[in-house]
């Protein structure tokens, strides 16, 4: 009965299945005896969901109409869009990006931002270029819009970004299709926790500018975890000034991680270009897509963000709160990485963020099964396992790398 374009589509989400097994183990053995490293949200050291006081207080004090009314515009309320501009490009973006044009489209989470971007910049049958180590839903979103994907290796033999393979894959797509759409998940890459160095970004952008002289280049920078990195934001923002007009940058913003409000489902696309026609076109097609799919997003979520970001005192309080939890993550990572080095457990390069990933050369299903027999639940990837540092209390971090190493050896 379904249409031909939907034949064969079904969702097999292994993460949710493993999380369910972890929950059952907790019911049987007690929370203190189970390590659930599958969860992708931030927990404190009592393993309770983190909620930021500034966010909670602001939301509770919203006007009823701000929570229950429709958004004022399909593409998002004006104050929300201004807040997104200030978050991504800085408070002084109007001065810092003179001669540039921007537009913001409000979306349901970062997922909506990704979906809109793939839908409107990939031609049917084209491929989006993704990191080989990636957040899995990128792939099914490409499939959903009638596209497919190719991948670039994340790391070279020195543990740096594999610029050589990245360039090779971009050149390959240049020969095959009209538009080259690329996703770079940075900072705090999911699943490795890698954050690009500024010099690595410079080389990427210089190369993409050269490529844009041949074809349209659309760079999607997934910044869902941006506030959990210690990167110098001014250095990062300066990278995107005065790029060639045929290189369009779309920042994929999400409220979920930085504001710990995963269920409100609020995000945005922010497009930046020196070509006004490109930005006008971006607004038109993505606004159309919004109306054709979710119509508009939660007015309450938009009011929440704008009331915090556009209020200097609230924003300062939020930053202080968030930085404490960011430091908590660094402490967890520091312990895990130190113990891993001591026992020579190989880990992909980590700098910031929620996750650490470990390469597995052995039978990955056997490794995962062995860990689960000890009530340690992780997310298996293709030839890797992902550890959600974000959800493990610090006392359970101690000794975890040793248990993983033992499971790999067996």
From TrEMBL:
CDD domains: AAT_like. Its cofactor is pyridoxal 5'-phosphate. One of its GO terms (biological process) is amino acid metabolic process. One of its GO terms (molecular function) is transaminase activity. The keyword Transferase applies. Keywords: Aminotransferase, Pyridoxal phosphate, Transferase. Gene3D superfamilies: Aspartate Aminotransferase, domain 1, Type I PLP-dependent aspartate aminotransferase-like (Major domain). Residues 34-394 form the Aminotransferase class I/classII large domain. The keyword Transcription regulation does not apply. Pfam families: Aminotran_1_2 (PF00155). Homodimer. Belongs to the class-I pyridoxal-phosphate-dependent aminotransferase family. This is Aminotransferase class I/II-fold pyridoxal phosphate-dependent enzyme.
């Amino acid at each position: 009965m379904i249409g031909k374009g939907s034949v064969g589509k079904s969702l097999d989400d292994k993460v949710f299945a493993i999380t369910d097994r972890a929950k059952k183990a907790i019911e049987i053995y007690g929370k203190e005896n189970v390590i659930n490293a599958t969860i992708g949200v931030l927990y404190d050291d009592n393993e309770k969901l983190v909620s930021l006081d500034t966010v909670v207080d602001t939301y509770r004090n919203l006007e009823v109409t701000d929570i229950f009314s429709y958004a004022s515009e399909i593409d998002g309320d004006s104050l929300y869009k201004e807040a997104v501009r200030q978050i991504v490009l800085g408070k002084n973006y109007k001065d810092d990006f003179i001669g540039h044009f921007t537009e913001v489209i409000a979306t349901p989470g970062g997922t909506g931002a990704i979906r809109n971007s793939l839908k409107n910049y990939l031609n049917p049958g084209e491929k989006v270029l993704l990191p080989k180590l990636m957040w899995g839903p990128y792939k099914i979103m490409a499939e959903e819009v009638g596209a497919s994907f190719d991948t670039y290796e994340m790391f070279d033999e020195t543990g740096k970004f594999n610029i050589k393979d990245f360039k090779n894959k971009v050149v390959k797509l240049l020969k095959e299709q009209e538009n080259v759409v690329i996703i770079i998940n940075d900072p705090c890459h999911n699943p490795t926790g890698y954050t690009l160095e500024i010099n690595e970004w410079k080389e990427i952008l210089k190369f993409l500018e050269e490529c844009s002289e041949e074809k349209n280049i659309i760079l999607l920078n997934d910044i869902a975890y941006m506030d959990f990195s210690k990167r110098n934001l001014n250095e990062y923002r300066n990278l995107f000034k005065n790029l060639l007009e045929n290189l369009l940058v779309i920042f994929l913003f999400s409220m979920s991680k930085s504001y710990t409000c995963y269920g409100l489902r609020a995000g945005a696309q922010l497009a930046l270009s020196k070509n006004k026609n490109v930005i006008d076109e971006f607004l038109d097609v993505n606004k159309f897509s919004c109306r054709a799919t979710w119509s508009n997003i939660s007015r309450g979520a938009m009011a929440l963000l704008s009331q915090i970001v556009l209020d200097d005192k609230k924003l300062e309080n939020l930053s202080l709160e968030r930085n404490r939890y960011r430091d908590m993550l660094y402490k967890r990572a520091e312990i895990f990485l130190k113990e891993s080095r001591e026992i020579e457990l190989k880990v992909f390069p980590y700098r910031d963020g929620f996750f650490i990933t470990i390469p597995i050369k052995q039978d990955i299903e056997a490794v995962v099964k062995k860990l689960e027999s000890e009530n340690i639940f992780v997310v298996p990837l293709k030839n890797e396992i992902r550890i959600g540092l974000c959800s493990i209390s610090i006392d359970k971090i101690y000794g975890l790398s040793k248990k993983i190493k033992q499971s790999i050896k067996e």
